[in-house]
Amino acid sequence: MKALQIVGAGQFRIVDAELPDLQDHQVLVEIQMVSTCPRWDINMMAGRDMFNYAESPEYPLPIGFPGHEMAGVVKAVGSGVYRFAVGDRVAALEHIVPKGAYAEYAAFREEELIKLPDSITFKQAVSFELLKCVVIGLMQLGDLKGKSLLVSGLGPAGILAVQVARLWGASEVVGIDVNESRIQYVRNLGLGTVMHANELQNQRFELGYDCVGAASSVQNVLSHVNEHVVIFGVLRGDITYSEDLWARGTKLESYKYRPVGPRDHQLLIDLVMNKGLNTECLQTHHSSFADYDQAIELLNQQEAIKAFFCPQTDFLSTGDHPGQSIAAASKEARE
Questions:
Q1: Distances from the Cα of 178 to the Cα of 212, 295, 329, angstroms
Q2: N or C: which end of the chain has fewer CB within 10 A?
Q3: In what order do the strands lie in the sheet with 205-210?
Q4: First CA to last CA across the chain, in angstroms?
């Protein structure tokens, strides 16, 4: 099978790999669509560790990594699998290890997949892994009905959070960002009230959900929220928990991962199939794997929300020579 492998900072190649050796508890999926996860892809191509920028990933990365948001069709099941059958349409809900989903096929454990009804398209389902994470974080805020919520960051997570909060009955939801094109994109889609972060002025909210992670973003959310703030983004920098926050009893916590089960699966399906959650709007750019570096540059420049690939058709013949990122090529041209 064909797969993508990042072999160094700014470098990738298309490789021929063996089909996964299917274990008793695993499901083999023919991947029909896979989406970028901007933070992972940008950092892996930039030579930065996802959680510690002072360190570098160990190259070459595992084949197909960091691809993990995918949707496809079950092609084979292990002898211990009972939830899925050949022909089922599925989406990933977890990262897969040790290999990733930038490949034609990948093996998953049963609990890493969700079965899709025919009415949900692959494009709607490809980022269910992200949706699952956003929903888990919002649940940490408790019942949203009748509550006001501030969402910081209108990247993929923030765009989903604004919608889910509205669908769950929040009385007021405002999304903020500093990128005017992102703000206008969400506004044009009619997904909710959005504005520049500087336009909040003296507005106050009961709840806050930070999807950026930068200390300045979290600090801004804290300055406008009375009761409870959850940091969904990967935190960068130090936050000051001031006396006035203590006096109000403002709760601040990080995103807390937890396993999901059948009830969570039904919740995700219901949001998309019955409640009208728009997940397709995240997939703004379609790319060939031969142009993977260009797709990541679009993410880096915030010109794309997400980019997606269709592994059954998007592996072009590029040989084994490492690709070069736009940024690297531009640097060489300047020199």
A1: 11, 22, 28
A2: C
A3: 193-196, 172-177, 148-152, 205-210, 225-231, 251-254
A4: 38
Please report the DSSP string for 18-79 in residue order.
Answer: PPP---TTEEEEEEEEEE--HHHHHHHHHT--SS-TTS---SSPPTTTT--EEEEEEEEE-T
Distances, alpha carbon 194 to alpha carbons 67, 191, 198, 275, 297, in Å: 30, 9, 12, 21, 25
pLDDT confidence bin for 101, thresholds 50/70/90? very high
The DSSP secondary structure of 199-219, one letter per residue, reads: G-TT--EEEEEESS-BHHHHH
Q: Looking at residue 322, what DSSP letter applies? A: P
Q: Specify whether the CB–CB gap between 101 and 92 falls below 8 A.
A: yes
- Residue 333 tokens read as 């041209």
User: Quick one: which H or E segment has residue 106?
Assistant: strand 105-109
Confidence of residue 324 (pLDDT cuts 50, 70, 90): very low
Percent over 90 (pLDDT), the chain:
91
**Contact criterion met (CB below 8 Å) for 64 and 6:** no
294: tokens are 């260009």
Task: Give the whole-angstrom CA distance, residue 279 versus residue 283.
Answer: 8
Residue with tokens 């031969």: 290
Read off the pLDDT of residues 262-293 as tens digits, 9 standing for 90 and up: 999 999 999 999 999 999 999 999 999 999 99
Q: Concatenate the DSSP letters of all residues of 135-179 into one string.
A: HHHHHTT---TT-EEEEE--SHHHHHHHHHHHHTT-SEEEEEES-
- Which residues make Cβ contacts (< 8 Å) with residue 188, sequence separation at least 6? none
Question: Which pTM does this prediction carry?
Answer: 0.93
Burial class, 209, CB count within 10 angstroms (exposed 0-12 / middle 13-18 / buried 19+): buried
Where do we find the tokens 């992200």? 130
Instruction: Please tell me the distance from the alpha carbon of residue 295 to that of residue 303, in angstroms, as a whole number.
Output: 10
Q: How far is CA 207 from the centre of its chain?
A: 22
Q: pLDDT category, 319, cuts 50, 70, 90?
A: very low
- In sequence order, the β-bridge partners of residue 148 are 172
